[in-house]
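Form 7-S
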Amino acid sequence: MTSDLPLPAALAARAWPFEEARKVLARVERQIASGKEVPEVRFETGYGPSGLPHIGTFGEVARTTWVRRAFERLSPIPTRLIAMSDDMDGLRKVPDNVPNKEMMAQHLGKPLTAIPDPFGTHESYGRNMNARLCAFLDRFGFEYDFRSATDMYKSGIYDAALLRVLAKYDEVMAVMLPTLGDERRETYSPFLPISPRSGKVLLARVVGRDVARGTITYIEEDGSEETVPVTGGHCKLQWKPDFGMRWAALGIDYEMYGKDHLPSQPLYDRICRIAGGEPPEHFVFELFLDEHGQKISKSKGNGLSIDEWLTYGPEESIALFMFQKPKAAKKLYFDQIPKAVDDYIALLDAYRGLVGPEAQLESPIWHLHNGKPPAEHYPVSFALLLNLVSASNAHNRDVLWGFIRAYAPEASPEHNPGLDRLVDHAIRYYEDFVRPHKKFRAPDAKERAALAELADQLEAMGDERDGEKVQFEVYEIGKRHAFEPLRDWFRAIYEVVIGQSQGPRFGSFAALFGCAQTANLIRRALAGAFLGPEA
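Output:
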């Protein structure tokens, strides 16, 4: 075992990574029982580097890693995670979010690793995209074996499986042709030759096959015939046959992918068997959507990039977003970040109260940190930090830390590095997403009277730092002024004083900001200080 985690607890764990890991364990046990040697268990995730990496791509690696780590608690057999980049695919469309589009348009149809890098930093566009993915995976601390499809085809690793596909060409065609339209059937071949003339990946009609020589003959773009080997990187497979061939060639035991692949899964499995392999265990996750409900796309650049999320939230928040409900469609845009951050903080705090491995294994925190969560405590939530930036108009991290220390004297950037990072994230998020949409309003007579009383009460509370005591007084004032439902009272506070319709518990905010400072803030709002043209 790779940890001292009790095996019964892992075998009974209900968290989805353990449910998936038990599927892999059952597969391995069947193989061993049949006499097969299993020197290692291979997990795989695929990446299409046609556009800038986005968080959906990262999510596949993160989720697969959680299943891998869970499996390692169930079996002593070594594991490997292969991160495969389909960088030999031909570029069909110039992405919207890259420079030098005119240059790239001149190379349409060529493998991604044969196209000059529009960013000017790598030997090719494909290598640049691969480097971007690897840089983030390294930053997050994933353990993986990165593979380039270009290198795999050219190095000969796929040769045996490719020759088997060629030998069983008719069987492969029998799988694929029923899925195609009449016109496409006339020209379809599982092999895509890389033209020795143009360098393009060709959707060419194959007119001859020589199994003994390992070659195909196809019709070039000018109508002439060309013969090339199917091995050594002279051809690649169409993407559906490629899935199954790759599983067979590499002995993959587990792979997950998005729901859009679900109709093709039986095809992948059949091709894998034809190529001499056993299909891996599968897990199908739902797709990520942008704020308009559209599927996120690398080429369109909608949704979020990895760097964009990390500008406004820590890595743990991305991981939690990926962990929760993988089979439910989720919108992936900037408004999700604050909730993901505070959900992580709440789960981390709750984890410390869990007793025994049975309870701990059900928490996302155990999986996010591989059973070793940080000891750090967060005395302040991200939502509170955002409101603190707003109310104090403090865009200097030292000023914000002054408020935090007054609220939690034991806190410091040195002892709370996670909170220290949140301070920077809060300033950036507020400036880019909160401040432009703030809209203050004037109170009505009832709200004005209640807010005036609240200001007096807060001033009388002096240096009180107990958020629950402050919250109690806020509730009582709302009741005395007959707000029904009481949430209308809190909405009035935030709309008049903060310039937004909702926020964290106001008592916690006032305790953090300071009761006297909050009283002054309310009186300024009542005086109309925030109702300028920009408000």
